Amino acid sequence: MIRKIELYNFKAHAKAVFKFGEGVNFIYGPNGSGKTSIMEAVSIALFGSQWVRRVGGRWSDYLKRGASVGEVRLFLNHMGQEVLIVRRFGEEGSSTSGTYLAIDGAVVARGDIDVTNAVVTKLGIRIDEYRHLLYIRQGELRRILQEPEYIDHILRIDEFDKVDEVVKDVLKELERRRERVGGRVEELEKRAPQLKAKADALRQRLAEAERKIKELEDAEIKFREVEKRFFELRERYISLTKEKESLERGLEETASMALEVEKDIERLEEELEFIRRAEEELSTLPELGDVEREYYEVKQLVATVEKIPPEVRSYDPKLLEETRRKYEEVSRRYVEVRSRLGLLRDVLRVAKAAERGRCPVCGAPLTEETVKRHELEALGLEKEEQRLSRLMEQLQTEIKQLETLDKTYRAYAQYLSIDLQALKKRLAELETLYQRKREVEKKRAYLSGVVARRGEVERRLEELKARKAALEKRIGEINGRLNAVETELKTLATVLTNIEAEYTALKVKHEEFLAAKMFVSELKRQLEDIERELIEVEKELEKNRYEVQKLDKALGIARNIRVVIGELKPLARQILTKAINEELNSIFLKLRHKEVFRSVQLVEIDGKYSIRVNTPAGYIDHRLLSLGEQNLLAISLRVALARALLGGAPFMMFDEPTEHLDEEHRRKIVELIRDLTSIVPTVVVTSHLGEFEEVADVVIQL
């Protein structure tokens, strides 16, 4: 039985634990609260990836949004043992390390496939029986009565048809292979005699070719001797020809070098004569004094004097002193006027403030005439002040200009007394002397360089004379060797002509010999290919004859298998139907709500199933029963199938079995689920209505 399930990041459940007990376990909650998710979690725990593929889903469908890893932990009690199944998974699939099955605390399987296989072997539950008998999903309660092939699928009777189709395909393939192999045997039986005849013809041609080779062997031996002698002489002739060409080129190059050396000797002798004339000219060159320093000093002095501005030449240093004195006088006068003007302004302020007062300057009474006179005087002083201010600014500007001019004057003062015309005349004289000295020195340097080459020229001249002598000796040696080579070439040409004629005549026989050998090799290759092909044909013929025998035997077996399958299918259906009826009638009588239903029987007519209910009035087909009675039959049949196939139903799960039913039929389903616990130890049922709450042993509210 199912004891507990723990969910972590499974669909809508971040972390949840649900405990189950014997009897009715009612999962109650509104639509979308996660009731079906609990049953899906049981399915995932039991069958993992196999369940995901069977329902056409993905692992990511079972993962809570935003989570990267989810986990289901299912606790079972099976035959007195505590079983724990853990499945940890992500978006791409289950985790091997986090997926395992433990019995009484000992891990017996790890990994998705191994855990699923352990569920089948240890718990005896396969996915097909679980999906069709133990877990009745929403809207599928009566499907077992509505689809005729449903029961055959659960009982795997349809596997007989699948096997028959496989055997039928195998039979067709065997027949096609028998036809192909038989045709190949006929083809090979025709091919073998043809190959034998061809091999005999090749052996005859090979014997004739080998006789011809024997006849040409003496000529071939003679050819090898003549060929060796001919190529040796020809190689020697070619070598001498190349040597002659090399000697001729060497003679030409040596003569050319000797000519070049002769020209170089003549050139050096001319250069030696030129050096002697340069020595004589060098001794006649005049000696001039050192005019260079004086020339550059005068030239710089002329440049300086020419740069003196005209205003500097006409400048008088006394003018700056006079302007400064004039500025001081104007400044003193400006101060006096400003002082007098200040007193007059004070008098005028006093006159305006007092009546018949006295002048603070002269002490006289301040009459209107006196005030008027002071006002006129103040006006005149103001104009004088402005004139003096402008004059001071003007004099300041003149002083700055004169100071700049005075500074320039003092810089050039020592050059003002120099006579520029006389200085330029002296510069012209010095420049003539300087240019003359440069020319003489340039000539002296050139002639000195020429004279300095005397030793090198004399040494080079001696070397060239020795080189000329060596080249003349080499020319003599080359001429001697060239005469010897030409004599040997004439002798070799005659011998080579005679042996070449003999070589050409024997070469014809040699080519016939080679052609015969190649022909023999080709005949041997063809004969080997044909003999090899003949062996392969005979082997393949023997193999295909044996294959024909095997195929004939296999065809007989395949036809017999189809006959047996046709006989086994109804027999298997009969045996399974009898076993199911024994369980079905017992379960139905425990769950029935009407005493008139005396018994029930699953029958098969023309390959289609029907359930007959026995009443005092006779048999009633299940399609004529009410919806509630059909639900009773559907549950009874599923439990009977579970007992027949699994030995019992350890638990059953119903997802929304009362959906779309009226109140009376919902009540009957509730009664049926309650009575079912007398046969099935643990029943799990979901509903968004509360009708199961009264009969539930365990209530899980979401």
UniProtKB/TrEMBL annotation:
GO molecular function: ATP binding; metal ion binding
Ranges of residues in domain Zinc-hook: 313-407
Assigned keywords, A-Z: ATP-binding, Coiled coil, Metal-binding, Nucleotide-binding, Zinc
Keyword Cytoplasm: no
Transmembrane residue ranges: none
Coiled-coil regions, chain positions: 171-285, 371-554
InterPro entries on file: P-loop_NTPase, RecF/RecN/SMC_N, Zn_hook_RAD50
Binding site for Zn(2+): C359, C362
Domain of life: Archaea
Descriptive protein name: SMC domain protein
